[in-house]
Amino acid sequence: MYSYEDRVQAVQLYLKLGKRIKATIRQLGYPTKNSLKAWHREYEQCHDLRTGYVRAAPRYSAEQKQAAVDHYLSHDRCAAATLRALGFPSRGTLAAWIDELCPEIGKRLVGRVAGSVPKSLAVKRAAVIELCAREESARVVAQKTGVSRPMLYNWKNQLLGREVPASMKRKKKPAPDHERAELERQVESLRLDIRKLQIEHDILKKANELVKKGTGIDPQLLSNREKTMLVDALKQTYPLPELLPVLRLARSSYFYHRARLLVADRHAGARRVIADIFECNHRCYGYRRIRAALSRQQVFISEKVVRRLMRQEGLAAATTRRRRYGSYRGEISPAPENLINRDFHAAAPNQKWLTDITEFQLPAGKVYLSPVIDCFDGLVVSWSISTRPDAELVNTMLDSAIESVADSDERPVVHSDRGAHYRWPGWLSRMRDARLVRSMSRKGCSPDNAACEGFFGRLKTELFYPRDWRTTTIDQFIEILDSYIRWYSATRVAVCRASSGMH
Questions:
Q1: Which of these, 14, 71, 213, 249, could form a disulfide with 207 (CB 3.0-4.6 Å)?
Q2: Residues 395 and 375 grouped into a single domain
Q3: Which domain of life is it from (predicted)?
Q4: Which of 228, 198, 230 is nearest to 212 (CA)?
């Protein structure tokens, strides 16, 4: 990319400026910082920038080459001995040095000195016998015989064969009987421990399947009835004498509870009815509403029995966790007076209305709900659902609510927070034309609209939080939400009235 003259000029200017890289590059307009460093390094090494690199010094000197070849020739031409004694080089490098310094020998690394007298058969046999006896090491035997160690093993393979071991030493004596007995006892103990751990593992799995307990539950905390169910589920795999001690269940207790389990369940019909009511009402009824619904179907059982049956069937309504309250107090702009003042009780319908907007975050997107709640019975007077929290969302909801009281002289108080939705001209004109009374909470004080916030909390606890919405589209969720609100107004609130004595 750059000529030889350009590189020389750059290095000379670099040295002239006191090795200031940025000043050199700024003045010349080239090269990069790394290139300038490399050109200067080449200049210092060879004072010439034509080659571009400097040949590295050889790794081994001529004296090292000669020493390695001399050691090889003086030690039975054994390459392994030379490499082990000197620590260098590799076998291929040593062969190249021998070919270079002693071309008459050639590249092949032989096992004996050239010109040495071949050993007789008697000498070979004596060396092999001494090797197999293992009184001394193979290296010592090879040195005494005057051959290399590989040559000694070649003699053994020729005379005895490769399958015969090179050592005839007596094997270690077997362990005495008492040591063998101790090892067998330890093996049996380990086998019993493994079986006990396997039993405990299977008990935890069955506890998760049958009594709906987590896999980390302590089996000792289970009731005797639940332990009996586990024993019955595992007695085909493990005998009773192994299961009962692990669960710490007495044999008499096991047969007592087993006999009770075999007796027909007198609440079998009530179990089915409770399960049907629970499933048909979005799995959000507790034992009080379940009992009220049973009373309407002429099934009369106590609350304790309902709670026990629901616990045994694993029917638990979703609940919310308590959150810390936090709010911001302060007035930033004129607003209507708080006429409700946290008094959410009404003597008749259409006296006090509450409204607000809540958001549902789905994997497919966001959905917004704006309802009007009647303080008299918690009925949802009207609602609108949209994917955008705009003026159309609240205006549509208000228009529908106004239509419900258009034929009467009722003019309810409409209470909301201080959001911009309830200060837009469209909202104000509709409120003025329908002669509705406005009321607003204090700034950042959600308890002033607690009844509406409570409706949102029940809605999300019963419908939104317990379900997985990853495969649900926006349209499907809007349809489900609309169906829930219709059920809430027509069925759920009616059951609440029945349970509380309201007419």
A1: 213
A2: yes
A3: Bacteria
A4: 230
Structure tokens belonging to residue 35: 């290139």
| Cα–Cα distance, 339 to 341 (Å, whole number) | 6
According to the model, what pLDDT value does residue 324 have?
54
pLDDT, position 168:
62
Do residues 33 and 128 both lie within one domain?
A: no
**476 shares a domain with 393:** yes
> Would 359 be classed as within a structural domain?
yes
Same domain, residue pair 411 and 367: yes
Domain termination residue (choose one: 160, 185, 212):
160
Q: Give a yes or no: residue 89 inside a domain.
A: no
- Do 226 and 136 lie in one domain? The reply is no
What secondary structure does DSSP assign to 351-419, as a single string?
SEEEE--EEEEETTEEEEEEEEEETTT--EEEEEEESS-SHHHHHHHHHHHHHHTTTS----EEEE-S-
Question: For the chain, how many structural domains are there in total?
Answer: 5
> pLDDT tens digit string along 428-470?
999 999 999 999 988 878 899 999 999 999 999 999 999 999 9
| pLDDT average, residue stretch 97-104 | 80
The answer for residues whose C-beta is within 8 angstroms of residue 148's C-beta and 6 or more apart is: 76, 77, 78, 81, 111, 112, 142
DSSP 449-502: GHHHHHHHHHHIIIIITTS--TT--HHHHHHHHHHHHHHIIIIIHHHHHHHHT-
pLDDT at res. 330: 47
Looking at the structure, tell me whether residues 459 and 372 fall in a common domain. yes
Picking from 2-16, 88-102, 212-226, 455-469, which range would have the lowest pLDDT averaged per residue?
Answer: 212-226
Contact between 387 and 396 under an 8 Å Cβ cutoff? The reply is no
Query: Which residues partner with 382 through β-bridges?
Result: 372
Name the token pair of 279: 């499933």
Q: What pTM does this model have?
A: 0.42
- Residues 273/293, Cβ–Cβ less than 8 Å: no
In a domain, 230, yes or no: yes
pLDDT digits (tens, 9 = 90+) for 40-76: 888 877 655 444 444 445 678 888 888 888 888 888 7
Chain length of the chain: 503
In a domain, 138, yes or no: yes
CB–CB of 224/232 below 8 Å? no
Reported as a single tens digit per residue, the pLDDT across 280-321 is 998 889 999 999 999 999 989 999 999 999 998 889 888 776
Same domain, 254 and 143: no
Share of the chain above pLDDT 70, in %: 86
447 and 369 share a domain?
yes
The number of C-alpha atoms within 13 Å of 291 and in the hemisphere containing its C-beta is 15
Q: What is the DSSP string of 58-110?
A: PSS-HHHHHHHHHHHHHTTT-HHHHHHHH----HHHHHHHHHHH-TTT-S---
Residue 41 belongs to domain spanning: 4-46
Mean pLDDT of the 197-208 span: 86
Domain boundary pick from 160, 182, 213: 160
Could you tell me the two tokens for 141? 């035997």
